[in-house]
């Protein structure tokens, strides 16, 4: 009722007014106002003037002696009557924030229910009623409104997020974490998973970031991985270690291996990559399939990434520089890490050797003796492995070499032969334009014994020359006048056997008693034939190409080991000393080759001794002196053997 219209005397009629229904007491007035307020709020018709008037009245009531009715207080707190900034949306006081300086940093990245203090809203004047609004439930302090931040977080433009925005958000997270059993809203977690944290490698989501500190500095530089950019955020960012960890940022140095490793592919600086490998090694990191690459530098800032399967730690043979990447050429202290984490082989495997030989087979290039020696030394050392057997089955070519030639050529294994007969070897080497005998090292070495190597070649399918040729005897008739059995004592006597056994007993040959005696038994068991005609032999050797090699030889002496016969041409004394030295040469060469065919490197030495002794008719005193001068001796078991062989002497 308008007191100005009715004048003050109106107050004298309270009881009468009450009887006709006019509300005259405070309690009744609050009930009427509450109904009026609810109706206006439901129609969104509470104007700026009403709000400011309400707040002014509320202040006066708070200062008066009147007790504020609980029902009205509840109504004001719960009814949605305060207009916020977003789309004229009305909220109850407890769901509103009155903007202040604390909200400036968080406001750009969160949709907050701020009371509309614009000129079109309540205006700045509403800030005069902070106390009243807070009493009604409006949030003023940042610490009281962090739930609104969590519910309204929005990153509109990542590039516009300032350091103060990010730090304010982390402060909010800290306050939320202090609440018992609190869990982040789904939308909040989803928004946090976007690329909003600035690192040295651009913007990234929290779970792809690392917080750098002194412990990380012991292993890496801050530019070695996606470390949060402290220059951008300032040192204060480090104080939010627990909050960053809670949203997924890696803070413990031992937990960053996978993330650091996943970034390796973006680096090209060798010193940086070495630091990262050291760090990964320290914490025993094991790569996932997509991370199984190793950096091979070419200078300090260039290089390529290669697969561990194409690498070995070292290659002492120096054969694989074109087929494999040898890591010890590029790294030193990281080698164990490559072996344990990437399962890089310590050295080339037999499979690698097999592939290398295939490359050589297909290249058509010749090999050096050093290459061949290193290759076959390895194969011999692993000759009992299953892989070696598979390799031998697939081998198509074997190494060959001509006498006096430094290059080794790989040829079809069916056209290459083991020179088990050195006479045939000499003959065919002279008539063939290409090498036909399998290579073996000269001299034979403990790591690559000739006998073992020849066994391997024979497993491959290489035949011996003696079993491969077709032999035709020429010019030795069966006529007794031309071919006569003679006493072998004149040719194969005690002096010859003694000298041979003394030579075979030398430590360099490493021949035991049985081997020595077996070597001379073939000589002792042979029948000696003498002929006046030249001793000619024809040999035919068929190759896989269809070509046949034919050789003929004329010798004064021939030892046919298969038939256990020694043929010797009768001496023509009219030809003088020349005929004698020729006979001595052929005899000593044939005997040496027959006895030492498995020890070819010693044939020439024995041949020279036998030649000299032959010219001296194998005189026992001369042989004894000759042996002594060459530091040769025979042992008791050899003496017994000689005595049993020549009992009459």
What structural class results from the helix and strand content?
alpha+beta
Q: Overall mean pLDDT score?
A: 88
Number of helices: 27
Q: List the strand order in the largest sheet.
A: 14-15-19-18
Please estimate the helix content.
40-55%
Biggest sheet details: 4 strands, mixed
The low-confidence runs, each spanning 5 or more residues with pLDDT under 50, are: none
Radius of gyration: 53 Å
End-to-end CA span: 166 Å
Q: How many domain units?
A: 4
| Strands, total number | 19
Q: What is the molecular shape? A: rod-shaped
Strand content: 5-15%
Structure, briefly:
InterPro entries: Auxin_embryo_med. This protein is an alpha+beta fold and about 650 residues long. It has four domains: about 15-150, no CATH class; about 255-340, no CATH class; about 350-465, no CATH class; about 470-645, no CATH class.
What would you say this structure looks like, in words?
It is a single chain. By secondary structure, the chain is an alpha+beta fold. The chain has four domains: 16-152, no CATH class; 254-342, no CATH class; 350-467, no CATH class; 472-645, no CATH class. The protein has 27 helices and 19 strands. The protein has a four-stranded mixed beta sheet with strand order 14-15-19-18. A hairpin with a 6-residue loop joins strand 1 (82-83) and strand 2 (90-91). The longest helix has 19 residues, at 577-595. InterPro entries: Auxin_embryo_med.
Give a topology summary:
Blueprint: H1 3-6, H2 14-19, H3 26-42, H4 48-63, H5 70-78, E1 82-83, E2 90-91, H6 130-136, H7 146-152, H8 163-177, H9 186-192, E3 197-199, E4 202-204, H10 214-217, H11 230-233, H12 241-246, H13 257-262, H14 270-282, E5 294-297, E6 303-306, E7 311-312, E8 325-326, H15 335-341, H16 350-363, H17 369-381, H18 386-394, E9 397-400, E10 409-412, E11 417-418, H19 422-431, H20 450-460, E12 463-464, H21 465-468, E13 470-474, E14 483-485, H22 494-504, H23 513-524, E15 527-531, E16 535-542, E17 548-555, E18 557-560, E19 565-569, H24 577-595, H25 603-615, H26 620-629, H27 636-645
Parallel strand pairs: 7-8, 11-12, 15-19
Antiparallel strand pairs: 1-2, 3-4, 5-6, 9-10, 13-16, 14-15, 16-17, 18-19
Helix pairs in contact: 3-5, 7-8, 22-25, 22-26, 22-27, 24-25
């Amino acid at each position: 009722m308008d007191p100005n219209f009715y004048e003050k005397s109106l107050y004298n009629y309270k009881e009468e007014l009450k009887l006709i229904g006019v509300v005259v007491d405070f309690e009744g007035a609050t009930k009427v106002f509450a109904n009026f307020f609810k109706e206006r709020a439901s129609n969104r018709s509470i104007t700026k003037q009403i709000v400011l008037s309400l707040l002014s009245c509320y202040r006066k009531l708070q200062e008066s002696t009147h007790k504020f009715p609980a029902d009205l207080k509840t109504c004001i707190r719960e009814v949605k009557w305060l207009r916020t900034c977003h789309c004229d949306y009305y909220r109850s006081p407890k769901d509103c924030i009155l903007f202040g300086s604390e909200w400036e940093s968080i406001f750009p990245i969160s949709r907050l229910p701020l009371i509309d203090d614009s000129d079109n809203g309540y205006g700045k004047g509403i800030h005069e009623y902070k106390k009243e609004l807070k009493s009604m439930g409006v949030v003023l302090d940042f610490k009281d409104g962090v739930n609104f931040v969590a519910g309204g977080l929005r990153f509109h433009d990542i590039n516009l997020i300032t350091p103060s925005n990010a730090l304010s958000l982390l402060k909010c997270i800290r306050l939320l974490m202090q609440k018992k059993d609190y869990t982040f809203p789904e939308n909040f977690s989803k928004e946090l998973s976007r690329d909003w944290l600035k690192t040295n490698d651009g913007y990234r989501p929290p779970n792809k970031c690392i917080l750098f500190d002194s412990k990380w500095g012991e292993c890496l530089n801050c530019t070695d991985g996606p470390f949060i950019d402290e220059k951008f955020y300032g040192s204060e960012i480090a104080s939010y270690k627990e909050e960053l960890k809670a949203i997924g940022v890696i803070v413990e140095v031992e937990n960053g291996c996978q993330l650091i490793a996943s970034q390796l592919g973006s680096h090209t600086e060798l010193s940086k990559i070495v630091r990262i490998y050291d760090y990964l090694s320290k914490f025993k990191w094991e790569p996932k399939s997509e991370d199984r690459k190793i950096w091979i530098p070419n200078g300090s800032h260039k290089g390529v990434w290669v697969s561990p399967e194409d690498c070995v730690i070292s290659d002492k043979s120096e054969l694989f520089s074109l087929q494999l990447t040898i890591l010890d050429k590029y790294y030193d202290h990281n080698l164990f890490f490559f072996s344990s984490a990437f399962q890089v082989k310590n050295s080339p495997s037999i499979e690698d050797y097999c592939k290398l030989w295939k490359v050589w087979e297909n290249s058509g290039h010749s090999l050096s003796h050093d290459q061949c020696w290193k290759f076959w030394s390895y194969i011999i050392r692993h000759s009992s492995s299953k892989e070696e057997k598979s390799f031998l089955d697939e081998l198509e070519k074997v190494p060959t070499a001509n006498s006096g030639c430094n290059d080794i050529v790989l040829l079809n294994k069916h056209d290459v032969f083991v020179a088990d007969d050195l006479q045939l070897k000499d003959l065919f080497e002279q008539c063939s334009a290409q090498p036909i005998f399998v290579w073996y090292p000269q001299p034979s070495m403990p790591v690559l014994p000739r006998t073992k190597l020849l066994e391997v070649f024979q497993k491959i399918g290489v035949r011996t020359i003696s079993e491969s040729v077709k032999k035709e005897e020429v010019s030795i008739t069966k006529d007794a006048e031309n071919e006569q059995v003679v006493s072998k004592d004149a040719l194969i006597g005690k002096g010859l056997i003694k000298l041979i056994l003394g030579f075979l007993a030398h430590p360099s040959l490493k021949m035991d008693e049985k081997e020595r005696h077996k070597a001379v038994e073939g000589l002792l068991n042979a029948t000696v034939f003498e002929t006046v005609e030249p001793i000619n032999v024809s040999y035919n050797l068929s190759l896989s190409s269809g070509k046949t090699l034919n050789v003929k030889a004329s010798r004064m002496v021939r030892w046919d080991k298969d038939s256990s016969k020694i043929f010797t041409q009768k001496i023509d004394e009219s030809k003088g000393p020349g005929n004698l030295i020729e006979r001595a040469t052929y005899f000593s060469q044939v005997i040496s080759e027959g006895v030492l065919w498995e020890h070819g490197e010693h044939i020439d030495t024995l041949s020279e001794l036998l030649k000299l002794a032959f010219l001296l008719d194998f005189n026992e005193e001369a042989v004894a002196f000759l042996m002594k001068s060459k530091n040769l001796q025979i042992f008791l078991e050899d003496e017994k053997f000689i005595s049993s062989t020549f009992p009459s002497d």
